[in-house]
Design a protein that fits this description.
The protein is mainly alpha-helical and 280 residues long. Helices cover 77% and strands 0% of the residues. Helix 2 runs parallel beside helix 4. It holds the Pfam family EII-Sor.
Length: 280
């Protein structure tokens, strides 16, 4: 198996740092496995493998988030190294996914280490804040960013630079049945990720839309692509929003004043008045 050049390793390390910063700040996408694996595949000249590895890992992460500061598998680093190993070894997407999963689980410990190191900088920032040293608070936060990104960049560098030896050690250490189990998990976990996501969606309320999407992909997959089904879903969502807005407008519109007296009542009153005047 070939090794990566220093230039590609540096590019992937820079992307790792950008992904970590994105994950702890604005979260616009680079931290996700799909972006990370696709970028790795693009840099290494095999975008297709990167997209396939990243899409599978992305499905595994659906519904997974660091609620309350909980630590989750580091699929950012796993996606980068898994894609790189899949391309370098030439063993395909399943091999990359099977490597990315244990890497992501193993590097969970690096997330904990990064948080522990950041406690030191947080305490320093608190001390500087007590004495009104704004510059000290600012620099403490900057150093906290460095420690956080290094907790991912260092293992990624080791994995990419010593890639051939690392992969050989992994292949020798992991039994065949374990690798087969990881491949099976790679096929099951996307469905589990979707199930977790569906658990938080109002499926009971909007089940007709769910059935429409499922039927289109299950029975018309040769005709409809995922993009086509997504556009149909967008159109149905637009119709639902328009109908809801119309209902709100109708409810807010002023209602006409109801007339309590009927035409016959008015005529009877008129004749009654004329009769009274005649008698007078």
């Amino acid at each position: 198996m070939d090794t990566l050049s220093i230039g590609i390793i540096i590019v992937l390390l820079v992307y790792t740092a950008i992904g970590v910063l994105d994950q702890i700040s604005i979260q616009i996408g680079p931290y996700t496995p799909l972006f990370a694996a696709a970028f790795t595949g693009f840099v290494m000249g095999d975008l297709t493998t990167g997209l396939l590895v990243g899409a599978t890992l992305q499905l595994m992460t659906l519904g997974v988030a660091t609620y309350g500061g909980a630590t989750v598998p580091d699929f950012l680093s796993g996606a980068i190294m898994g894609t790189a190993y899949a391309i370098l070894s030439g063993k395909g997407v399943e091999y990359g996914i099977g490597i990315a999963i244990p890497i992501g689980l193993l590097l969970t410990q690096m997330d904990i280490l990064g948080r522990m190191v950041n406690l030191f900088w947080q305490k320093r920032a608190a001390k500087f804040a007590e004495v009104g040293n704004a510059r000290g608070v600012e620099m403490s936060n900057v150093f906290g960013i460095f420690s956080w990104t290094l907790s991912r960049m260092i293992p990624v560098f080791i994995g990419l630079y010593f890639g051939e030896h690392v992969v050989n050690l992994i292949n020798e250490a992991i039994p065949v049945w374990v690798m087969n189990g990881l491949k099976a998990a790679g096929a099951i976990l996307p469905a589990m990720g979707i199930a977790i996501l569906l658990h938080y969606l109002p499926i009971k309320k909007y089940w007709p839309y769910f059935i429409i999407g499922f039927a289109l992909m299950a029975y018309f997959s040769e005709t409809f692509s995922v993009l086509g089904v997504a556009l149909i879903g967008l159109a149905l969502a637009g119709i639902a929003v328009i109908n809801q807005q119309n209902k709100v407008k109708e409810a807010a519109a002023p209602q006409p004043v109801a007339v309590t007296a009927t035409g016959s009542d008015l005529s009877d009153n008129l004749y009654a008045d004329e009769e009274v005047n005649f008698n007078d």
